[in-house]
Specification:
Order of helices and strands: EHEHEEHHHHHHH
CATH topology of the largest domain: Glutathione S-transferase Yfyf (Class Pi), Chain A, domain 2
Structural class: alpha+beta
Bound molecules: glutathione
Shape: globular
Radius of gyration: 17 Å
Oligomer: single chain
Length: 218
């Protein structure tokens, strides 16, 4: 089997897929795509042949002749293809929809607003300074986390949904990492912080952490 993940150490979407691969216990080759150096390797022709969107991650499963973008699609593919270990989506339709909704609160409503290309456009086209761009990103993370914190009060246990790690945790933990990078005051979010602490004690999350990637700090 030959599975490859094209990603970047600090990319939250890549981080989600790394966590999912580890939870599934699936070995893979990690291929760094530097989002800043050389004008951003995500924009180079060789990479854009794999992913014309010019974003990471891209996942390749040679055995099945599959090339996928979009971290959520990749994770659901992994969950179905390697269904023996650590199901990331519950079997029951209502629970599955709730998990997806929380995951999408992060992946659809928070992450895109703080993406590198959005921050670059704010700086280049609207003359925001670096601290102003960081404040923009932090603002949208806070708006999203305010809602998630309230939602978790009705359902969270050790993880976002009781005692099983799900797709929601897989999305939440990279967003917490990103929130800290942008200076969000996490003391406003005791439940999110507790869940992040619990997840970050698990080997799958530790191994996926940005600092533990071969391209970290590059
Ligand atoms: N919805 C996509 C988001 C992908 C995405 O925004 N990736 C970011 C890193 S987290 C990226 O490649 N940014 C490069 C850029 O903005 O130029 C997914 O979940 O895979």
């Amino acid at each position: 089997m030959s599975l490859k993940l094209y990603g970047y150490w600090r990319s939250t979407a890549s981080y989600r897929v790394r966590i999912a691969l580890n939870l599934k216990g699936v070995a893979y080759e990690y291929i760094p795509v530097h989002l800043v150096n050389n004008g951003g390797e995500q924009h180079q022709d060789a990479y854009k042949q794999l992913n014309p969107n010019g974003l990471v991650p891209t996942f390749v499963d040679d055995q099945e002749d599959v090339i996928l973008n979009q971290s959520m699609a990749i994770i659901e593919y992994l969950d179905e293809r390697f269904d023996g270990k650590g199901r990331l989506l519950p079997a029951h339709a209502t629970e599955r929809a709730r998990v997806r909704a929380l995951a999408q609160d992060i992946a659809c409503d928070i992450q895109p607003l703080g993406n590198l290309r959005v921050l670059n456009a704010l700086k280049e086209n609207y003359k925001l300074t670096q601290p102003e761009a960081f404040a923009w990103a932090a603002n949208w993370i806070q708006k999203g986390f305010d809602g998630i914190e309230k939602r978790l009060a009705t359902q969270a246990g050790k993880y976002c949904f009781d005692f099983d790690v799900t797709l929601a945790d897989v999305c939440l933990i990279p967003q917490v990492y990103n929130a800290m990078r942008f200076g969000v005051d996490m003391s406003r979010y005791p439940l999110i912080s507790k869940i992040a602490k619990n997840c970050n004690e698990l080997e799958a999350f530790i191994a996926a952490h940005p600092d533990n990637q071969p391209d970290a700090d590059s």
